[in-house]
Amino acid sequence: MSGTSVAPTPLLKDELDIVIPTIRNLDFLEMWRPFFQPYHLIIVQDGDPSRVIKVPEGFDYELYNRNDINRILGPKASCISFKDSACRCFGYMVSKKKYIYTIDDDCFVAKDPSGKDINALEQHIKNLLCPATPFFFNTLYDPYRDGADFVRGYPFSLREGAPTAVSHGLWLNIPDYDAPTQLVKPRERNTRYVDAVLTIPKGTLFPMCGMNLAFDRELIGPAMYFGLMGDGQPIGRYDDMWAGWCTKVICDHLGLGVKTGLPYIWHSKASNPFVNLKKEYKGIYWQEELIPFFQSATLPKDCTTVQNCYIELSKQVKAKLGKVDEYFIKLADAMVTWIEAWDELNSTSDIPKGPAK
């Protein structure tokens, strides 16, 4: 095809699944139809499995409820959270594609400052297909973007970059705040569109949000476990952040990159801060122990696969965070169960990982 026009085939059409956790009819997909319809959807239904979830006509999808999860995983289904958006990680496990995009059902299409609809999926794909720069910060942010390059003093030996494993998108309108911040800033809205993508440096953690997130399933998928949250657990709303902390430690070890920034979606509604506080309050205390744990976590050089790294991290969680609360002993066991279940469902994929650093 000649000229500069965009090819009609959507990027990675046959290599990407969209994973959506939900408890309701997926009317929100109508807004996303121009962008999502060419792709395969994996819908993970939370809550009552007897409820029929309606999906708009014309979408290619598979839908799993709790009964399906129990049937497919058997006893190992205990590692998949119930009555919490962490159930979405089951979709990551059963996908057969190289890439995953996950979005919440209260997230709509945002507009850029010119008023044009933002194709969030396309931007995530660009982020994932372009190298990251975790080992040396470029002050022009993404050096591979049109109109930018590596600045003076940037080592030439690092300019090839590293494979990008995670693309973390942001949100306009309702900010992703914890309950105390929600309570003191109930009317605050995020109206600031920052036209930038940057690589989070090696050794730096971040609070990952799962409502607008893409990742290379082959590079980092087994680390994208959203933990034990929700029904029967003492904590909620830390599922995506737990996955983010584990993933970042493993990406740093394997020499992989994590990006944050564009694309934006429109987060349509705020969840109840009082309900959130009930879910979060233990986490608000525990995070003061969790962050130093992840900041100091190191993995041995012989951990060269994501699975090896994750099992090793689970041992450290049990040994060190088990002293904080017995919940972390249970979580460490679930991390191992998750990897066992992942390997059972993905036994044919012997996937090369990034080089150990």
TrEMBL record:
An annotated Gene Ontology molecular function: UDP-arabinopyranose mutase activity
Enzyme Commission designation: 5.4.99.30
Record keyword Glycoprotein present: yes
Signal peptide: none
Coiled coil: none
Top-level lineage group: Eukaryota
UniProt keyword list: Cell wall biogenesis/degradation, Glycoprotein, Golgi apparatus, Isomerase
Gene Ontology cellular-component annotations: cytosol; Golgi apparatus
Protein name as it appears in the record: UDP-arabinopyranose mutase
Catalytic reaction(s) noted: UDP-beta-L-arabinofuranose = UDP-beta-L-arabinopyranose
Subcellular location: Golgi apparatus
Chief location category: Golgi
UniProt-annotated site: Required for activity, residues: 152, 159
GO biological process: cell wall organization; plant-type cell wall organization or biogenesis; UDP-L-arabinose metabolic process
Residues listed as glycosylation sites in the UniProt record: 152
